[in-house]
Amino acid sequence: TKMVHAFFDPAQAAAFNALAAKKDSTFDVKYFDLHGLASVPRTLLAISGSKFTSTSPKDWASEKANTPFGYMPLLTETSADGKTTLQIAESDAIERYLARKFDFLGSDAFEEVLVNTFVSNNRALLSAMLNKYFSVKDAELKAASKELLITNNIAPWIKHHEQHLIANGSNGHYIGNKV
């Protein structure tokens, strides 16, 4: 099996691009035994109908060095014939790779920008939640942060996203009528 470390090796570009165009690969999403940053990649693989497994590190301290930045998730894709395997690191890169591979980024450049905009806005909300609530240890500060988070971040997010969903015909999708 030829291992292609998709990250940072231009010599592997041809093998990577060939496999990226195929939809019959099998996948493994390596992440801790929780949803976290692997939830979107797993969801994209599930709705695409792909064959995939989810694995957790057995000894993260020793496995950490086998990732480009020391973080997970890590996606491993193996060609249908088993001859080529590639790895992609970082949740955002994995999500966009899978979304492009399985045609979830829209039908043209305009729709792709819209998808990326909604994804970016969702990430901004998640970041605010992490920074303003989940990382706060003091109970009183956490309670105060919760109210501000709801008022200044969550409520406006809901309002804006509801407007975009309504503008697309209230069909449950942000763009068109598919994922």
From TrEMBL:
GST N-terminal domain location: 25-106
Source organism superkingdom: Eukaryota
GO molecular function: glutathione transferase activity
Gene Ontology annotations of biological process type: glutathione metabolic process
Entry-linked PROSITE patterns: GST_NTER
Name of this chain's protein: GST N-terminal domain-containing protein
Organism name: Linnemannia schmuckeri
